Every structure is written in structure tokens, then in C-alpha cells.
Amino acid sequence: MKYTIKKLAELAGISTRTLRYYDQIDLLKPNEINKSNYRIYDEKNVNKLQQIMFYRSLDFPLSKIKRLMDDPDFSQLEALKEQRRLLLNKQKEVNKLLTNIDLTIENYKGEKKMADTEKFAAFKKEQLAQNEATYGSELQQKYDADTIKQANQKYSQLTEKEFKEMSDIESKLITDLVALKKHPDLDSSLAQQIYQEHRQWLEFTWPKYTKSSHRGLVDMYLMDSRFQQYYDKKAQTPVAQLLHDVVYRYTK
């Protein structure tokens, strides 16, 4: 069966604007443009859109979806199996959050005492699952499985105090990067402080810190727009390149 852009949008529950954008970025091209200049989509387009929407439900950025689906070795069946696995993991994390909420309600009612560590366990597990879905393939290419496992374990075992310290250091790091961007000087005490803050932030999860690993990480920040956006969005100004340069300055 064939669909116009309007009919396909209605079928999928998305906007025609979204489909036009997918066409613009070469993520989902229509099968044909008819004589009336209408985009026409066929069954293959429908199947591809379904897989795109599965990836989007897992919070995959469009750039990664395109990269995966443009791979000559891409298999629709294998992709569906992987999406099913990731969705099941996501379902488990939602169930953990619901359990955590139920325990918290009982704690507020005075029906059950909840340990402080229990209050944050579900959030840390959710973050690990989200990191795996978003950055898993890139991290697996750069780090061995044992290193990733140790980092995840270290993160999941953070105490409430350590978790707060990690968040506070990251907030301070972003603030300092914004300040340095206004008056960039890699030899300044502020730049040196930024290096130390980023190192401390990493050491909350890294099994072992090395300067070469630190450089490798900030190189990845520049090679993958999602990592850049993580910092740039928090700072509300481009700072990923600056962080990269600071790290290189103090890891000679």
C-alpha cells in the first residue's frame, strides 16, 4: 500500500513537518514524488519509519539513527531484536522507578523506613541504562568491557554524599567554563581549576585515572556531537572545544 505524506503522518501519529525533516536530512526519503509533487511512501518506507520511531522511543539522536541505518551491514531483523532488548531494559528501569516511588510513599506515610541509599538507587540505575542506550556503542569501541563494567559498578555504589559531590563539581565545572570562555587563557588559574574539576568528576566513576584516557575522552567529545551538546546545553554556550583544549594543556 502507498501513502501520501499526510496519510503516513496520520498512520504513525507524527506530524508531516517531521516527515519532511526526515526527508531533508536523508533519514527517510519518500519512494517517489508524483506528478502533483506529492511525496509518496511505500511499505519499505513504512517499515523504516517504524524502526526510526523505535529508536526515538529509546532516546537515540537522529544522527546516530541515520548512522546505524546507513551502515551497509544494517539488518532490520537484528535491529528489531536489539531494540526489543533495549526496550525491555527500559521497562525494567521504569518498574524500578515505580517500586522506588511506592517505597517513598510508604516512607512518607510512616509505614516503612526507607534508607537514604534506597532513595537514589533507582535514579542511578536509570542513568546507567540511559548511558548504555545513548553512548553504549561508542564507549564499547573506546574502552574494554571490564573497564566499562567497573565504571558502572563504581557509579552505582556512590553514596548520597558522593552523588551530591559529583553533581556539585559538575555544576561548578560548567560555571567555570562559561567564565573562562569570556576571558580565555589556558595558562590561568581558572583553566587549571577546570582541569582539576573535570578530573575529579571523572574519578567518581573511573576505575583508574590516566592522562592519556582523559585526552581520549575529550577527543571523543569533539568527534560526537552528542557529547558536545551535553556540555554546550548545560552551559548555554559552546564550551566543549574549550574543555578539550584545557584538558590537553594540563595533561602534557
From TrEMBL:
Q: Where are the transmembrane segments?
A: none
Domain HTH merR-type stretches: 2-71
Which SUPFAM superfamilies is this protein grouped with?
Antibiotic binding domain of TipA-like multidrug resistance regulators, Putative DNA-binding domain
Give the superkingdom in one word.
Answer: Bacteria
Q: Which GO terms of the molecular function aspect are on file?
A: DNA binding; DNA-binding transcription factor activity
Q: Which UniProt keywords apply?
A: Activator, DNA-binding, Transcription, Transcription regulation
Q: What is this protein called?
A: MerR family transcriptional regulator
